[in-house]
Design brief:
The protein has 112 residues and is α/β, with parallel strands linked by helices. A five-stranded parallel beta sheet has the order 1-5-4-2-3. β4, α4 and β5 form a beta-alpha-beta unit. α5 runs antiparallel to α6. The longest helix is centred in the C-terminal third of the chain and has 11 residues. The radius of gyration is 13 Å and the shape is globular.
Length: 112
């Protein structure tokens, strides 16, 4: 398991399978459209059928729960990444790369 910086993820997001481990309420408030939602409490039972051709990149709000999720999956034999900084870091990286506007950034951060 390694940390993956949001800017690095954004260089080629299609190379990773982004798994959001936040709660349903957090997911409903704001999420990345490319992510698959599997709450941390359901991760172990739902990870097996996920495609194995891409590294699993786990994300939460700030990176703590996704780090825990990576630790839970270490023995799965999967290539794992923890998205450093979580959703907050990803949204900031999107703003810095011009993927989202300052207004979109502010709106997203208010929801996170």
């Amino acid at each position: 398991m390694k940390n993956l910086e949001p800017a690095q993820y954004l260089q080629s997001p299609g190379n990773y399978l982004l798994i959001d481990v936040r709660s349903d309420m957090e997911w409903d408030a704001a999420h990345d459209d490319s992510a698959v939602h599997i709450p941390l409490t359901e991760l172990l039972e739902k990870v097996a059928p996920l495609p194995k051709d891409k590294p699993l990149t786990l994300i939460c709000r700030t990176g703590g729960r996704s780090l825990r999720a990576c630790q839970m999956l270490e023995s799965s034999g999967r290539n794992l990444f923890n998205l450093a900084g979580g959703m907050r870091g990803l949204v900031e990286a999107k703003k810095n790369k011009g993927i989202i506007s300052e207004q979109e950034f502010e709106q997203m951060m208010a929801k996170l």
